[in-house]
TrEMBL record:
Signal peptide: none annotated. It holds the Pfam family Glycos_transf_2. This is Glycosyltransferase family A protein. Residues 41-97 form the Glycosyltransferase 2-like domain. It comes from Desulforamulus aquiferis. InterPro entries: Glyco_trans_2-like, Nucleotide-diphossugar_trans. The lineage of its organism: Bacteria, Bacillati, Bacillota, Clostridia, Eubacteriales.
């Protein structure tokens, strides 16, 4: 009788082990979505490369595991950046925040573009890209090369 119970116990434990192994294998192949992330791009007078940035991010967003919300803040551009962004917004889903052009004030300590953009982000993780601080001669392709080539892991 004890031998029968021992064999039965071994069979039950073996079945449980096979079940757990199958669960581990299935979970290894299942792709879990990443955390929702907001990408905040603050720019001004970037008409030469804003279309590249938005189109590249939209294409990249479709093939990655991370849930990316795109928020673009136009900090009072004086060139065609606002028109280009409005045209792109018709075809590509992103949140556009357009601010009025403001004169240079030395006493201004609050970055209105960044604050406005952060208020429009809905996720707790925010990746901030401030293209106003980058010289206009440096193309956005160089800025985003590491991000696009390696992907966000």
């Amino acid at each position: 009788m004890y031998q029968t119970l021992e064999v039965l116990l071994v069979v039950i434990l073996a079945c449980y082990g096979v079940y757990r192994l199958a669960q581990d294998v299935i979970s290894a192949f299942r792709v879990q979505p990443g955390p929702p992330v907001s990408m905040l791009i603050v720019l001004k007078d970037r008409a030469q490369d804003v279309e590249y940035i938005i189109r590249r991010l939209a294409a990249w967003r479709k093939h990655q595991w991370v849930q990316l919300e795109l928020v673009v803040v136009d900090d009072g551009s004086e060139d065609d950046t606002a028109k280009i962004l409005e045209g792109l917004q018709q075809r590509i889903p992103f949140r556009l925040v357009a601010l009025e052009s403001h004169p240079k004030e030395e006493s201004r300590t609050v970055d209105q573009g960044m604050i406005s953009g952060l208020l429009h982000c809905h996720n707790s993780l925010v990746w901030l890209v401030d293209l106003r601080r980058i010289p206009t001669g440096l193309q956005a392709e160089k800025v985003f090369r590491v991000f696009f080539c390696q992907g966000w892991r």
